[in-house]
Amino acid sequence: MATIQSQNQQTPNPRFAQFKLVLLGESAVGKSSIVHRFVKNTFDDMRESTIGAAFLTQSITIPETETTVKFEIWDTAGQERYKSLAPMYYRNANAALCVYDITSSSSFTKAQDWISELRKQAPEGIVIALVGNKTDLEEEREVNQDEVEEYVTGLLNGGAPEAKIITAECSAKSGDGVIEIFDKIARALPVDEVIEANANRNRQGAGRNARLRGIDLDRGRQGQHALSNNSSCC
Fold first, then answer.
1. What is the pLDDT of residues 180-205, one digit of tens each?
2. Which PANTHER family match (predicted)?
3. Domain coordinates in residue numbering, the chain
4. CB pairs under 8 A, 24+ apart, for 13-17?
5. In terms of CB atoms within 10 Å, which end of the chain has fewer, N or C?
């Protein structure tokens, strides 16, 4: 499983990829709590609702490939009055967490609405994680895992075979399952493609710099040659 890399532990890694991730879901399902558990390993029972959006970053390492994946995380507000702002945050996103509360059937319906919107509006190939939070309240559960799997199977059988949908449950309060969610997302993202694209850009940049240095050297040699000719004439 991937391990979290703290800010002061982060070092340059030749296998490094960075991705934008957005959190969506109804208010009070625990989106911010999941992020803070992942980023800071903290939980606050009295956390206030997010206004607009909050931005955080965290990196994890996939040990078997020695790859560092950095998430740029946009935690969006769940209140209806902020819904119109959501496209601004999921635009160009590589991954999305659609969070619901396992003790609230209505929040699961809302998460499905977000997935429908992402499939229509978000970039092609986006990785979607359908995440049920608050497993510490198992005795109050209203959304069971069979219901979730049935919904996802229906999506895949209904003309969305290209969809990358991950299902998971967690408890932001206890921390159970939180890191595993981001581990699954990191492994579903096109890490190798991004690393290769970055390497190509670096090679092209180095080539341009070399050509520019070559032009400067040629100009210098031409100038020296002109000076030597003028000297001989004198």
1. 999 999 999 999 999 998 888 877 76
2. PTHR47978
3. 15-192
4. 13/66, 13/67, 13/68, 15/65, 15/66, 15/67, 15/68, 15/191, 15/195, 16/67, 16/68, 16/69, 16/70, 16/195, 16/198, 17/67, 17/68, 17/69, 17/70, 17/189, 17/191, 17/194, 17/195, 17/198
5. C
